[in-house]
What we know:
Layout: H1 3-34, H2 38-59, H3 71-78, H4 90-102, E1 112-115, H5 118-130, E2 139-141, E3 147-149, H6 151-158, H7 161-165, H8 175-180, H9 187-193, E4 214-217, H10 220-223, H11 225-231, H12 239-246
Antiparallel strand pairs: 1-4, 2-3
Helix pairs in contact: 1-2, 2-3, 2-4, 2-5, 4-5
Amino acid sequence: MSTLRESSIVNSFATECFRNVADKDYIVARNTFRLGLIEHFQWNAHQAIEKYFKAILLYNKKSTKGIGHDLSKALRRISTISEFSVNLSDEEDKYINHLNNNAQNRYLEQPSCSFGEDLFLLDMTVWSIRRYCHVINYKMKKIDGTDVNLLPYELKKISHECYKENPYKFRIGGYLEGVLGRKKTDLERISLTWKNSYFGARRKIIINNFPIYRHAVVPPHFRDERRYHILKDYVDFPGRIRKLFKE
């Protein structure tokens, strides 16, 4: 199989199986937040970011093997891309770490919490990460037959001040952009643009009546350790939970 063919196959997989699915996870996450289903919101938010990270790796010919659902491990793998860095703010790093520690909780295996600004943090983080979710390190032939590397131009676009002031204008031609092009009555479009400062048809400076969900839940085996020692004979707890109670 030629190198060109292999590159095309990997990039296509990154788009269809990681980035497009991540876009859908992101829309579902926003919808579950709107419904106040915080555990489901956190899981889908985590899944979206995980897939965006894996798409970035594939677009840059890095393996995603062994990462699993560990966002920190994915970020460390991304840091091995020598040609550029994925720049995230301290606030975004903190939110990713929060999801990594709290979101893998589909069966309420561990305590979970939300501090109220989660949807805004997700929107901001997805926008920052997704800018890198396409092929940005590539070459094109000039009229004289010489190659020109377009990576510097792509990076300049990603970091341009005009998009920081008007994030809704940044487009990569993916699934989300397709949703934004639909009628305003489309349910996916409504879920994507609702209270969204980063994805929409216009700039939103002030968002009124933004819902704040401060949420915390503690599962029964954390309220009384004796319950865990009974339940472990009936339930397959994740390794991190078994390790915690063992310690």
